[in-house]
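Schema walk-through. Below, the input block comes first and the output block second. Nothing else is stored per chain. Lengths vary across the set, and this one has 251 residues.
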Amino acid sequence: MMRIDASGITFLGSVSDLTGNGSYKPLVINPELLGMSFPYTYGSSATASGYFELFETGAFIGEPTIDSVHFKSTIYGQRDVLASGDIIIPSGTFPAILERSIDSGIDTLWVKGAATGNMWVVAPGFPESSLDSSFYWYTNNSNQPYAHALFDDTGLHDVNYFKDMITGISEVNNSFNTVVYPNPSNGILNLTLPPTTQNCTFTIFNTNGQIVAKGSNTLNQINLTNLPAGMYSLQLTTADGKTSTTKFVRQ
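--- output ---
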């Protein structure tokens, strides 16, 4: 989840399944993480840090013999715009800026129960640390990338192109605003649209830029029951070519 306004982009948190057991929880970053300060161009830089915490029962992590668990994740981010120019991808050549993003984190899990003498202790295997380096190519009028390439200790992976999801430079004034709710959604996504954009088609993309659903907006609702849990991008297109792109979470 993020906030986008005239000053830039700020990351507020996420809805995550930390344990992989299908239990999604809202996680609020404290303090909010700065992602971009506008104008974002060659030479721009942003450094930020924050954390989120989760307090739950042992049953939540599959350990019913533990009374309580306390999870804390500390996040550090560094973003620098290294270059500007043209990017050549399968769909064409486009003006872009290149951002390098370095994100690191430290995760710590404490547990308390009879086995620990009812004292808080660090769980085995923690703290855990992570480090990821990514490159993103952006148009200078959009907060969504043309492409990205991710690096970690396993090497280069997850190279994707997103031109179909972009509000391009020549299209930036041909868009409209959409409000979606509830977000996260458990199956039905409601839309609030400007009166002149009621009749439109929709396309839903997963985080890899793949199309997972398409159709027509009916009664300002979209049925998500066939989508697995996760984060998605919704693109709406009117008959006269106006577009709107927003993100949502499927619980």
